[in-house]
## 1
Amino acid sequence: MNKPESLVPRYSHKDYKSAVKPIWCPGCGHFGVESSLFRALAYLELPPERVAVVSGIGCSSRIPAYTQCYGFHGVHGRAPAVATGLKLARPELTVIVTSGDGDAFSIGGNHFIHACRRNVDMTLLVMDNEVYGMTKGQPSPTTPADWDSKIAPGGTGVNPFAPLAVALASGANFIARGFSGDPNGVAHLLVEAIQHPGFSFVQVLSPCITYRPEERFWKKTVHPSSVEPTRDPAVAGHRLLSDDGFTTGIFYLGNRPCYTATVDTSNHDLSAIEEDLAL
Amino acid sequence: MNQAISTLDAFLTHAHELEREAVERYEDLAEQMEVHNKPELAELFRKMAAIEQQHVDKVEGLAGGQPRTFAPWDYQWQTPESPESIPVGQGHYRMNPHQALSLVLACEERAEAFFANVAENTSDPAVRESALQFAAEEREHAELLKVWLARYPEPKADWWQDLDDPISQE
C-alpha cells in the first residue's frame, strides 16, 4: 500500500466534511460509511479539491452534499455514467461513486454492469441496506425473497441479486465487501480500492434501522474472509457463488488495463458548443 | 487481545486518537439530534464533545503537540472503533436522556478498561503511570455519569414506537 510519508497528518475527517448536517436517521449505517470514506481520503492525503464524489438518488446518494470534495448529485442509477465522463475528461481527479442497492442494482443495473465492463479507473461504493429507505421501505434487488412486510406480504418470492458475482462476471477489476459497523475496516478496503487501477467495486452492508431494524444484528452475522484475495477470476467466482453474503474482505484483484480517453480534449475549444447551446 | 504498548509515544498516539474520535462522534450525534429535533440530547452530546476536547488538548500538551498517527486500522483497539466512541448504529431518533447517558457511560467504561489493560500489559513504567492516570480519570467520569443517569427515568418498553411512523412493518 502506498502511503505518503508524514508523521503529522495533513488532512483529517473535518477537512472532508461539509457544513450540511446529514438527515439520515440516527443509527443509520451510512454514518459509518461516510466516516470510513473520510478516513480513507485522509489516509491517502488526497486534497478535497482533487476528489469528486458522484451519486445517484437515495439515502446513500446524499453524500456529495455532506463532503467538501467536489460533488455531483446525479440522476437515479446513472451516477456511473456521469462519473465515467468526469474521469475521462479529468483523469487527475480521484472519482468516487456513492450509491445504494436500489440505485446501483435496479434503476442503475445496466449502468452498473457496463461500468464494470468499461473498467474506467474509479471506485463504486454501494451502501447496501437491502431496502428502499428513502421511499419508505420497499424491497430492493438485494432484499431476501422471504422478507415479509406490509408492502410485500409474504415477501417478494424473488431471489436477491448477487452484486459481487455480477461485478466479477462483468469485468470489475477490484471486488470487496465491508460492514458499516467496522468503519476502520471499510476505510482500509476503500484505500485499497482507490489505489487499485481500474473499476473498483466495494459493497458495504449498511443497516437501515428504520425499515429493517433486524439488520442491527448484522454485527453478529458478518465475518472476515479467512482466505487471501485472489487474482484468479475462476477462484473468485467460486468463492462468491458459495458465499453467505456476510463475508467481508477483498474477493478479487484483477489486472485488466484501465479504459482511458482516446481523444485528446485538451485542445478543443468549447466556446463553439457553448454558442450552439446558448438560448 | 492485550495491548502491549511499549513506548510513551505509541501510548499518546492511541490516547489522542481515542479522545479525538470521541469528540468527532459526539459532535456527529449532536448534529443528528438537532436535525431530529431533540435539543436536550444535542446539548448533552455537545457537552460531552467539549469534555473530550479537553482530553485531546491534555494529550497534545503531554506530547508537546499533535502526536503522530497510525493508519486507522493499525490502532490496537479491542473494539471495531476506538473504545470511547459510541458505536455506529447505537443511536436512535426516539431515544431518551437515560438511553443517551447509558451509551455515554458505556464509552467511559470501555475507555477505562482500555487504559487499565494497557497499564497491565506494558513493560514501560512511564506508559504504565500515564495509563493508570488516564484510567482513573475515565473511572471518575463513569461515576459522575452514574449519578446523572439516576436522575432520568428509564425508557418505557415501547419507547421506539412512533405514532407517526412512516409505515408499519408488522
Note: The beta strands of chain A are 51-55, 70-73, 94-100, 122-128, 174-179, 199-205, 223-224, 247-253.
## 2
Amino acid sequence: MSDVIVHVKNVQKTYKQGSIEVHALRGVTLELARGEFAVLAGSSGSGKTTLLNLVGALDVPTTGEIDVEGRMLSSMTGKDLAELRLRRLGFVFQAYNLIPVLSAYENAEYVMLLQGEPAEKRREKVMKVLESVGLKGMENRRPTELSGGQQQRVAVARAIASEPALVLADEPTANLDSKTGSDLVATMRKLNEEHGITFLISSHDPKVIRHAARVIRLEDGAIVSDERQNGKPAVGYNPVDAATEDSEAWRGGNADGEDYDGD
Amino acid sequence: MNSMVRLAWRNLGRNRRRTAITVFALAFAIALCVGSYGVTDGLNASMLETLTRLELGHVQVHHAKFPKKRQLTETIDDAPRVLKAIASLGPRLGGKATMRLYGAALVSRGEKSAGVQLVGVVPETERQVTVLHKLLARGRYLDDAPTPWPRGRKLTDAERERDRTITKKVEKDVLDELDSLPTLKPKAPAPDAPKTPAPNAPTPNGPTKTDATRKPDATKKTDATKNVGPHGRTALKSETLELANKLSPPPVRPPRVIIGTSLARILKVKVGETIYALTQTVDGMMAEVHFEVAGIFKTGSNQYDRTRIYMHVGDLQRMLHLYDRVHEIALVTHDAKLANETAATLKAKLSDDKLIVRSWSVIRPDVERMLKLNKVSTAIMIFIIFFVATLGVVNTMLMAVFERTREFGVLKAIGMSAMRLFNLVVIETLVLVAFSAVVGTIFGLLLDGYLVVYGLDLRSFTDGISIMGIGIAPVLKGKVTLSGLLIPSLILGISCFVASFYPAQRAARMLPAAGMREL
C-alpha cells in the first residue's frame, strides 16, 4: 500500500448560487501521507470544509482528481464510494450531525452496525470510545438531551469507533471546553500514533494546531502555506483571531439556511 | 434489518402529530374497507344462503330433460339410488339431501284465485336442507307424515260398463248441444250457387247421413233434455264422481299445506282455513282437492311468498298420480365453494345420461355473476379509497424526506449506501402502514362485529329487498372473513410500498454534501 493516502490534484470546485458562481477551491494540489496528523487552517470561506468534503467523497470536484488510498474517486461507483466512506473514512462534522432518534451509544455504534460488526465487539469499542471522549454514563441520552459540546464528542466517538484509515474532522473541538478539547485532541493523536490513523482536521484551535505535525493554510480557495512542525504552532497563525472567525461561522453559516457558506 | 426497523420506528415518532394523523387516515380507510368487505360478504352470503337454503341447495339432481320443460313425466326413476350415491360422497363433499316433487295448480278461495306452484317436500329431510321451517310467520310447519289417503280399487265390470254408458250419454249430449248452437248450423245455399253440390255439403233434398246423426230432430232433442239435461247431467256427474272416488278416493281430511304471506293476502285466507285447488294429474285428468292452511311463511322474496305452496311429497304424489316419483333431489354440502366439485363427483358416481347433476352456480349463473359483481364493486371502492390514502402516504414520506435531507446526507457520509437509504425510507413507510393496518383492522373488526350482531338496518327504507328474485332481509348482516380482514391491509401495504419508491429514490440519489448543506 502506498505511503500517500490522499492525493489531491489541481482540484477546483465552483458552486452556483443563482447566476453567480462561487469559486470555493481554485486549483488545490495536496498530498497527505499515511499516518499524518494534518490541520487545514484558514479563515471562514477559505474552502476548508469544501476540501474535506471532496476528500471524503461527499461531493465531487468541478475539475481535478482526488485519489484516496490509490483509488481515483471519480472512477468509483456510488456503491464503492459508500463502501469507502463506511470502512476507510471517518467524519466529524462542524454541526454535530448526529441522528436525533438514536442515543449517544447508538450513534457511536451505527457505523459499526452498518459495517456488520458483531454486537459484542461493537459494545466493547463503543464503551471505550465514549469513555475516551468523556461521555461515560451518558450512553443512553439522545442528542437533544446532550449539550452542544457533548454532541460533538459523540460525533468524534462515532468517527473513530470504527477505526478508519483516515479521519476528516471539521472543527472537532470548537464546542468542547478546554480540558475536554485537549483530551479529545490527545485521544486523536494517540489513535494517530498507535493505530496509524491519518487525521485531516480543519481547525483554528491552538490545541489542535499544537498537536499537528503539518499545518496547511488556505485562503480564498487556494493553499497559501503548507508547513511541518514538531509540536509548535505554525508560523503566522493567530489562534485568537481564527477562533473568533470560527465562532461566527458556527453561529451563522449552515444553520441560517444559506446554500453554501464557502467554509 | 432490525436496526433499520428500529430506526424507522423511531423516525416515525419524531413528528408524532403528523404520524398520528396519517395513521388515523390510513386506519380509517382500512376500517372502512374491512367494513365494506363485511357488508359485501354478508350480502353475498345472505343471497347465497337465501338462494341455496330456501330451496335450491348447493347441488341438484334432475331428470335430464326436466330443467328445460319441467314436464310432470320427467321424474327421477330411481331416487333411492341417487340418495345412496349422495351418502357415499364422504364427509368433505357430502351433505344432507332431500327429495321434491313439483306441480302446478289454480287455487281459490271464494272469488279470489291465483296460479301457484305446488312443491311436495319430505318435511323431515327438508328441514335439514332448507330453512323454510324457520320462516313461518304464523301457524306451524308440515307434518312429517302425509295425509291419510285411502287407496283406490279397480272398478268392477258392471261399474266399468256403467262408466262407459255415462260417458257415451254425456258425449252425445254435448255434441247435440254444440250442434244446436246457431253458429254451428249449416248455411243455406245462395240462390246463385252452383248446382253441383260440394263434397259433403248439405243437399237441398235433405240432410246427409252425417248430418242426420249430428242434427237432432225435435223429438230427439226433447229426449236428450229429458235424459241428460241440466238435471240429469248433474246426476250423471255425481255418479261419475262416485266412480272416480272408488278409483282414487279423496283424503280423509284436506292435506295440510304452508303458503306464503303474499298468497295468503291475495286469497284472504288464515291459518286453519281451507283453499280449493285444481290441478292436472300426470295422465291428463283434472284433480281437485281442498287444502288446509297449516302455516304461513315469509321468505322476504315476493316470488316465493306469492307463488309457492309447500305440502308433503306423499300428498302431491297422490294428487298427481306420481307414486314414488320425484322431480328433484337437492343436496346441501358443508361448503358452498365445493358445490362444483361435489356435482362433478356425484355425476361420475351416478354415471347416468338420464340424470343431470348441477351445482347452484350452474343452475343460477346470473346469481354467481351478481355475487362477483358485488365483490368487484367493493374492490373498485377500495381502490378509490386506497388511491387517496396512498397519495397521503407519499405526501407524508416526501415531507419526511425533505425535512431530513441533512440527516440523509450524514447517513450517506458515514457510509450508508444509496440502497440502504432507499430501504430505510421504504421500511419507514411499511412500518407506518403496518401500524395503521393493525389499528385499522382492529377498528374494522369492531365495525364488522357490530354489523354481524346488529346489521345494517334498512327497515326505515324498505320492508324487504329482492335482488334477482332472491329475498334479502331488510337488516343486512355483515360477515367476517379472513380475506375481508386481510385484503385491505395487504392492498394498502402493496400500494404504499410501491408509492414509497418515489420519496425513497429522492433520498437515495442525493449527494451527501448537498444533503448536509440543506437545513
Note: Residues 113 and 122 of chain A are 8 Å apart (CA to CA).
## 3
Amino acid sequence: MTLLDDFLIRAALGGIGLTLATGPLGAFVVWRRMAYFGDATAHAAILGVALSFAIGMPIYAGTLVVALAMAVTVASLAGRGHASDTLLGVIAHSALALGLVAASFLSGLRVDLTAFLFGDLLAVSRSDLGVIWVGSTLVAALLAWRWQGLLTATVNEELAQASGIDPRRERLALTVALALTVAVAIKIVGALLIAALLIVPAAAARQIARSPEGMALAASGIGAVAVLSGLWASLTTDTPAGPSIVVAAAVIFLFSLALRRR
Amino acid sequence: MTALIATEGLSVSHGGAAVLDRVHFTIAPGEIVTVVGPNGSGKTTLIRALIGLERAATGRVIRAPGLRIGYVPQRLQIDATLPMSVRRFLSLPRRVSDAEAAAALARTGVAGLGPRPLAGLSGGQFQRVMLARALLSDPQILILDEPTQGLDQPGTAAFYKLIEEVRRETGAAVLMVSHDLHVVMSASDRVICLNGHICCEGTPRVVSAAPEYRALFGLGTGGAFALYRHEHDHDHEQDAGHGHDPAHPHHAHAHAHAHVHGPGCSHDPA
C-alpha cells in the first residue's frame, strides 16, 4: 500500500480513527462531568509507559493495564462518594509525576517520555494505525452496544435501576472505554491533551445537536475536521501536530457558539 | 396476595449513621401507599433500597420476580450539555414507537409535547412526562418520589386525580413519597409515617389523627392539614389546626385500632 507510505496520510487516518472513539465517549465525559476523571486516567498512563519500558512490555499493553487500573480505582472511589476534585487531582498529578520519576531511574532508556506527554501524530506507523483503528472501533462498538443503558443511567441512576439497568455496570463500561481510548491515543496526542480531544469537540457539538445521538456523531465529525485542520496547520506553519489539533478544535468551538440554537 | 415489594427489618446506614432502622414494609398489587416524613427521614433512601440501589446493613428487600417498576423521579439533574427531547426521553430505556409515545403523552394530558426539550418543561408538564415514560413499561408498581413538589394546589389535586385514574385503568400499585403535609392523597389505602423508622401507619384518616404524626410534623403549632378528597366529599372532620397543645399530644385522640406504632417513636418534636 503505497498510500500508507505517506506519513501525512497515516497521520490523518490515525487521527480520524481516534475520533471514532473520542466523539461518543467525549459526549459521555461531558454529560457526566467526567473531565477530571479523563485527565486522571490519561496522566496515569505515563506511569504505564514507564513501566512498559522497565519490563519490556509493549507500550500499548502497559498503558492499557495502568490506565484501566487507574480508571477502575477512581470510578470505585467516585461510586462510594469519595472522589472530590481534590482527591482526583492528587491522584492524577501524583501518577503523572511518579511516571516521570520512574522513567528517570530506567538506565538506558532512550525514548524521550515527552513524546508521550505531547504525542507525535506525524510519527504514526502502520502498526500504530492498526492499533488505533481496532481500539477505536472497539470503544465505539462498546458504546453503541450499551447505548440505551448508558444514556438511561446518565439521565438518572434510580430511573435506570428501576428499569433493571445496573448503573454500576454502565459506569464500568465507560471506565473500560476511557482506558482503552487513553491507551490508543497516548502515542498520537499525548497524555496531556487526550482529555482535550474528548471534551472540546463534544462541547462544540452540543451547540448544534438536538439529540444525544446527534451530539455524539457531531463530536466525531468535528474531531475529524479538527484533526485535518490541525495537521494542515502543522504542515504549513511547522507547529506541533497534537496541540495544533486541539487549537483547531477550540476554534471550531468558538464558531459553534455563534451557531447556537436557541 | 403476595407482596410486590417487601422489606424485612431493613436497616440502611450512610457513613455509620443509621438512615433506616428495622423497617418492615410491604406493598400488595393494586395498593396505593403514601410514605410521609420530614426531610432527612429516610424517604428517598427507602425508595432507593426498594429499587435495589442501597445495600442493607441488616434485613433484606424482597421483590417479586420479574417485577416491572415504573419510576417517577422527583426531578432529573440532566446536565445542560445533554440535548434530550421529550420524545427521545420516552424511549429510555426501551425504544418505543411514535404511536406508543403519543398515546402515553395523551394519557397523561401532555399530548404534543414530544419535540420539546426536556429542560424547557414546567413543573406540571415535567411530572406528567415522567409519568408517561413510566407507564410505557407497563408497570406492576409505580414509584413516585415527591411527585407534587413544586406544583400548586390545583396542580397537585389534578396530578393525584391522574394517578388515581391510571391506577384504575392499569391496576398498578402506587407507592408515593411525600413531605407535602398539606395535601395527602385520600385515595391512599395506607399512609406510612416515616422518621428513620416507621412511626405509624394506617388509613389516611387514622394517621392524620395519630399523635405520632402530629408530633412529627408539629401540627400543634398551628400547621394546617387537609386531605385531598374528591369534589363530592366535603367531610371536614379531619381539619386540624385548632390550638392543639403539643405538651399533651396523647389526649383527645380516640384514634382507631387500625394504625400501628413503630418502636421507639418519639412523640416529642424536640
Note: Residues 220-226, 228-260, 266-270 of chain B have pLDDT under 50 and may be disordered.
